[in-house]
Amino acid sequence: MTPLRATARTLLLLAAAAIAAGFAPPPPAGSPSQPPAPAEPPAQPAPADPFANLPPQVRLGLRVAHTQRILPVLSTVVIVPDADSYVAAIGRWSIHARYPVLIDDGTWIAQQDIARFVRAFRPRNVVRWSAPAGETLPEDPPGRRAAIERAAAAAWGAPDAASLRARWDEVSLTPPGLIATNEGDGAWTAALALAAGRGQVLVWVPRSHDHIGWQASLAAVDALSRRLEEAAAETGLSWDGLGDDLDAITLCLDFPVKVDLGESSRARMWATTDVLGRDRSGERTRRWAWAGQIAGSEARAAYMAMCALFLRPPSAWLFDGYENTEPWSHWDATAAAIELERAGVPTVVGDDGAQGADDFRLCAAGRARVPTPREQATDGSTRGGARFGLIAVNTSGNAEFFDLRPGRALAGDVPFLAIPSIVHFVHSWSANRPNDRNTIAGRFLERGVYGYVGSVHEPYLQAFTPTPLFVKRLLAHAPLGVAPRLDSGPPWKIAILGDPLFTLGPAPDEPPEEHRRLPLEGAKPLADSLAEALQARDFHRAVIDLSLMARDEDVVRLVRAIQKDKEARLDPDTALAAASSLYLSGAFELFTDVYDLAIHGAPPDADVARLALRDMLWHTLWPIRATLRPHELTLLRLNIRKDPYHMPRDAVEVHGAIGLADGHEAARDFLERIRSELPSDEARRQFNEYLRR
To answer: Is the full-model pTM beyond 0.90?
Structure first.
């Protein structure tokens, strides 16, 4: 690895981008509820050292982007079955070649994540690999920590953790941040990947007694902050200001996303990731690091880290639920889209008359009224779901719903993601309980988002970086943990879920020929496994292999062939494994034909799969509710979602479909039956309001 080198012209261009993004000069001091005024370029000539024009926010992003750019990446995705193999696979990374490693723990959601990643990464090879006998993680905490640290060191060519700093010096790397985790928390997998991938310092902290959806006391967050400050000081690196060595904190821990300040506080709640990395005295306005958080199972945390390390958004969807008057116009999605298009990112915009709940639902379901940068299905129809790597929405509402112009969208309306995405959601409360699928952030995370910016409480509009400025900052190489932050005031309510050092830097090259051999003996290509499964007529295994290789159209062909084969039978497990591919490929009728079977294929403890497929059914049939086949209308009647928000709307939409298909009397009978099933007075009020509309 060589130190960062760039021409004076390049650095001046970066300085200009930083100025346009509002990073130079620094914003004036004040409340976080005050949006920054547009910055003007300095009148004086540039100094002899162009680096002096780059503020800490951009300098940090450039450091990260440079490290990532010069570490070659193999066009291979490695799927492992367990934590032992995950650690062993990352321990075989080197500065000559790296590759994504994802965990297939056998759950439906892990397999969805892998397929989603593969669609975006588009590798030449997908392989399965298991660690050799003897390469197992110790059970005792100290031994487990040591094994994880050894793997992170080995990825840089260091024989052990004690030698890692010297190795970093050899390759001219200064760690950009700290990663806090616990060996007993599922998110340690993200900590290992991001430590090995970005060259960061692992810090071991106690497990939290509370989960991410709860609230922490300020004392608990301060105790965590003290531990991080002590660890930063122990490194011998500079850390207590911005623009020095350590400028980032990644919390890989199931720790509360918000801080409870008590009823007497005007703020009431702060976002944990906006409290960490600040001076703990006074008003806490002085920041020394930007923070982000990853939580989840070993498989999900590994997925989020691998997305941040190896993917870049190929396209964007910006949806603006605001009117075009002050102050709302500062968040104008059309202005943000212009910036993305100039940077070569194809962008779809919901704005200027296409801002309603129906517009959002149609685009989320893959039935957009406007051209999109997605491919078409092989039969000429639209594909299901969304294929956007960046999604930004301006709206208002609560944790469970968001109001548009006109209409109200619900958490279940967020898109099924064909590829992983980053989401910037300008809206109150959306990240209040990110582990709850009934909330907006919860649904987005369930569907594969790897970076989410949203509020844990009522933040007021001006707490959010205006959408065009957020986009400019990302394009100016500001990391995800920096771009949404207004740093002129004390902590506030905007949480950052994901790797705070994700940066829109250039993609790395493949290794030279002599380093293209995958260093995992015994790795088996999924293509070989697929051939064996087809030979043995093991269709369940074949469908899983095809799905994991993102060969959705081939899943469609195989399911149709099974249905036509007199000697074969589509069983529930195979239907479940195939369902997402059928939907995402645009084989909507086939999806509804196998839906009941797929639901029965979900094991009793797989509520996520069942509930997700029910949402998928609504995304499939709601856009065509005026022309449903009898079987499809029956499916909607039997799959009305029972939560207080979706049930009133689902019932009214089914009522309308029954009226079109079976007449007024049948619709009225349904209406009378469903009224008695509504769970509360509020649900009945919403039901009547939907009927009135």
So the answer is: yes
> How many of the other CB atoms lie within 10 Å of CB of 674?
19
Q: CB neighbours of 317 closer than 8 A, spacing ≥ 6?
A: 347, 348, 350, 363, 372, 386, 388, 390, 391, 392
Neighbours of 682 (CB within 10 A): 12
Strand 248-252 and strand 524-525: pairing?
unpaired
Sign of CA dihedral 82, 83, 88, 93: positive
| Whole-number pLDDT of residue 373 | 47
Rounded to an integer, what distance in angstroms lies between the CA atom of residue 645 and that of residue 332?
Answer: 28
Q: DSSP labels for 178-238?
A: EEEE-TTSTTHHHHHHHHHHHT-EEEE-PPPSS-TTSEEEHHHHHHHHHHHHHHHHHTTS-
DSSP character at residue 482: T
Please choose, from the candidates 509, 525, 523, the residue with its C-alpha nearest in 3D space to the C-alpha of residue 96.
509
Cis peptide before 327 (omega within 30 of 0): yes
| Token pair for 249 | 């904190």
Q: For residue 656, what are its two tokens?
A: 């309308």
- pLDDT value at residue 553: 96
Q: What is the dihedral of CA 134, 135, 136, 141, to 10 degrees?
A: 120
Tell me the mean pLDDT in the region 595-616.
Answer: 86
Q: Are 294 and 195 in contact (CB under 8 A)?
A: no
Taking the C-alpha atoms of residue 201 and residue 246, their distance in angstroms, rounded to an integer, is: 9
Measure Cα distances from 340 to 315, 391, 507 in Å: 9, 12, 17
pLDDT at residue 607, as a whole number: 83
pLDDT, tens digit (0-9, with 9 covering 90-100), for 358-409: 999 999 999 875 444 444 443 445 789 999 999 999 999 999 999 999 999 9
